[in-house]
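Holo prediction. Input below; ligand is zinc ion.
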Amino acid sequence: MNQNMHLRLLQAGQPGRILAALVVTFLLTAAGSFSAFAAPQGTLDRVSAEGVGGWAADDASDTPVSVVLVAYADGTMNGVEIGRGTAAQERTNPDNPAESGPHGFLIPVDWESLAGNTFQIEAYAEENGTRTRLYGTLAYEKPQDDATAEEAPAGETYVGSFTTTAYCSCKKCCPSGSSLTFAGTVPTAGHTISADLSRFPLGTKLRVGDTVYTVEDCGSAVKGNVLDIYFPSHSEALQYGRQTADVYLIGG
Ligand SMILES: [Zn+2]
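Structure of the complex:
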């Protein structure tokens, strides 16, 4: 009931309708305060990589309140349920006796499994199939990993995590006895690399760590995500052993 309606009724000079309007106003006020008393109340007040927390309680009983989290991803209008829990954790707030007691909740959320990057989160207390919105809306943004291996520098393309092995020109490493690479070049440390030629043709430049190598060789054991790095001596090759490295294609 608003002021304008009262005003209009007064101007019309109809005392009976004014009285009716006042009664309706009173009933609406009474109904409003009754439902506010009976419905669960609570607040959404924290969000982190682990989940969403707050408190919810039902004035009418000591039964813990069920809480449902709903999120809207990337500004969309479609709310998706992202978690459920029970408000039953002990919590104290001197400023609000209603939330003090076993009414806190922290509902785990697996953000990575959710589509989207930014989320507007709402919470509802659920009781007898009826949902009551808890106070507050929270915002969460998935952390952006700037240092992921997949993020390649300009001019390079990340091609994957590779097993890197080492070889030299000795008979053990090269039974063929050839002192030249498959490409016909003289193998050079810090430059020559052996790769799966079906994936990286001769001449392909690949960066492993801080070194840019050129594919000049191949080997029966060098298939798929394996690279064999040339070393000038067998002992250095042995010392390198077998490692795992992120590999980037130059000029890809
Ligand atoms: Zn060797």
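The chain has three helices and 15 strands. That is the main takeaway for now.
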